[in-house]
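Repro:
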Amino acid sequence: LKDLSLGDLMELRSQGVSGSFVAELKEAGYDDLTVSRLVTLRSQGVSGRYATDLKALGYDKLSLTKLVALRSQCGAPDRAAQCGILHELEAPTRGDVCVCHDEHAQ
């Protein structure tokens, strides 16, 4: 986060995005995030620790969209393995057709 305006700083602060929150995300491999993305992650309960915990379970380099989806639908990282959305996210990596690209969907 470079060259933040006063408005950006006020937005981050009002949404509970602290320096430690940004540092955790950066440590987890998510740096160069925009103010709006930081606010979205914070409001959805995605933290650097959450991303780090998922990484420890073998889910590395997830997109921000996938992180938010997992958090909203699965909750804690230790529930990720039982989460339906995770199976859909992994389907293409196994060579399976995911629901969003089902050959029979119209």
